[in-house]
Amino acid sequence: MVCNMDIYNDELFQEKYNKMNELFPQLKFCVDVDDYDRLDNVLVKNKDAIIFYKHKCFCCDPKRNVSEVIYIKRNHQITYRDFYNECNMKWKNEMCNHRFLEQIDIKNDTQIDLFFGS
Fold first, then answer.
1. Predicted confidence (pLDDT) per residue in 68-112, tens digit
2. What residue ranges in the chain does DSSP mark as E strands?
3. Cβ-Cβ contacts under 8 Å for 36 (sequence gap 6 or more)
4. Which of 32, 59, 67, 111 could form a disulfide with 107 if both were Cys (CB 3.0 to 4.6 A apart)?
5. Are strands 111-117 and 48-54 parallel, antiparallel or unpaired?
6. In sequence order, which residues have a C-beta less than 8 Å from that of residue 41 and are 6 or more positions away?
7. Residue ranges of the domains in the chain?
């Protein structure tokens, strides 16, 4: 997912952004570039989890009622890299204008909830 980078001049930001896009070229949303430094850190302490995002946006399309549900199963605790790999391979729905990943919340060590901004 190519995002508007015109407002950023920071070379380190640009470098991380480019590396994340090389690793995960099919993502339908814009990554949090800070996650590049923690790709191999544990995100979820379990070996399986569910990524959940409800595509109902009150700003862009309040009538849209679609959810993204992606199951992750590994033989190790789930890392940020695992999260991005699964989203890269399995995310189906297009994002609205709110496509910049701002926050990842973990519920009960099994559910990964996502929050996006514009």
1. 899 999 999 999 999 999 999 999 988 878 889 999 999 988 999
2. 42-44, 48-54, 67-73, 78-79, 100-107, 111-117
3. 16, 19, 20
4. 111
5. parallel
6. 79, 80
7. 29-117
